[in-house]
C-alpha cells in the first residue's frame, strides 16, 4: 500500500495556537522524519511565519485570489510565500466560497507555484471543483467533521464515487471528516484516495504526537 499524505488542519483551537501550535509542528516534523510519511501542517494565518524553517511543509488555511494592491484584510499568496507557505486549503466547510472564487484561488496558487487543496462536501461538488484542476480535492461531508466517525466507514460510497468522479489523473483525492486513527487512513487509501485531511483527531488528542504516530501505523 502506498504511503499516505497527512494534512493536519490546526483550525483555531487553542491547543494548536502559540507555543502549543509550534510544539505540534515540531511533533509532526519528528513523526514525518521517523516514518517517511509526508505530513503537512496548516496553522492559523497570523502564526504562519512562526512555523517557517521547521523542516516540514506548511499550508495556509485560506488564501484570497488577489494580486498586490488595495485589498485590506485579504490574504495575498505572495505574503504566504514570504512566510514559507507552499500551499493552501480552499473552501473548507467552515469557510465556503462561491465556485468562481474557488476557481480563481486555484488559478492564483498555480500561478505562484503553490499547491491547492479544495474541500468538497459532496460527489457533485467534487465533480465541479475538480474541473478547475486543483492539486487535491478533499471529500468532507460536513456532518461528520469533528464527529470521530470517519467518512470512510460512515459512507464509503461517497469516497469511492468521489475518486471515480475525478477524471483528471493529475487531480488527487483526499479523505476528510472524522479521521482519527491509522485504520481510518488505511480505509481511505483502500477506497482510492492518496491520504487524509484532519484536525481534532490529532489537535485535541491528549498526546498529539502519539496520535500522529497511530495515524501512520496500520
UniProtKB/TrEMBL annotation:
GO terms for biological process: gluconeogenesis; glycolytic process. GO terms for cellular component: cytoplasm. The active site is at residues 92, 140. It catalyses: D-glyceraldehyde 3-phosphate = dihydroxyacetone phosphate. Transmembrane segments: none annotated. It is found in: Cytoplasm. Substrate binds at residues 9-11, 145, 178, 199-200. Keywords: Cytoplasm, Gluconeogenesis, Glycolysis, Isomerase. Pathway: Carbohydrate biosynthesis; gluconeogenesis; Carbohydrate degradation; glycolysis; D-glyceraldehyde 3-phosphate from glycerone phosphate: step 1/1. Its EC number is 5.3.1.1. GO terms for molecular function: triose-phosphate isomerase activity. Homotetramer; dimer of dimers. Belongs to the triosephosphate isomerase family. This is Triosephosphate isomerase.
Amino acid at each position: 500500500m502506498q504511503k499516505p499524505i497527512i494534512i493536519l488542519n490546526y483550525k483555531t483551537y487553542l491547543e494548536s495556537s502559540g507555543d502549543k501550535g509550534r510544539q505540534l509542528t515540531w511533533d509532526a516534523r519528528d513523526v514525518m522524519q521517523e516514518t517517511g510519511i509526508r505530513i503537512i501542517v496548516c496553522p492559523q494565518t497570523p502564526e504562519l511565519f512562526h512555523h517557517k524553517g521547521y523542516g516540514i511543509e506548511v499550508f495556509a488555511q485560506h488564501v484570497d485570489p488577489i494580486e498586490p494592491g488595495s485589498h485590506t484584510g485579504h490574504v495575498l499568496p505572495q505574503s504566504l510565500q514570504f512566510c514559507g507557505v507552499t500551499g493552501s486549503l480552499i473552501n473548507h466547510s467552515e469557510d465556503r466560497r462561491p465556485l468562481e472564487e474557488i476557481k480563481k484561488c486555484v488559478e492564483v496558487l498555480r500561478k505562484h507555484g503553490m499547491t491547492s487543496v479544495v474541500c468538497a462536501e459532496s460527489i457533485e461538488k467534487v465533480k465541479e471543483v475538480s474541473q478547475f484542476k486543483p492539486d487535491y480535492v478533499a471529500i468532507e461531508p460536513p456532518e461528520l467533521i469533528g464527529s470521530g466517525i470517519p467518512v470512510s466507514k460512515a459512507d464509503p460510497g461517497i469516497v469511492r464515487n468521489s475518486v471515480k468522479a475525478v477524471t483528471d489523473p493529475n487531480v488527487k483525492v483526499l479523505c476528510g471528516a472524522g479521521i482519527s486513527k491509522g485504520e481510518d487512513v488505511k480505509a481511505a487509501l483502500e477506497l482510492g484516495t492518496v491520504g487524509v485531511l484532519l484536525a481534532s483527531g490529532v489537535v485535541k488528542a491528549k498526546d498529539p504526537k502519539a496520535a500522529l504516530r497511530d495515524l501512520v501505523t496500520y
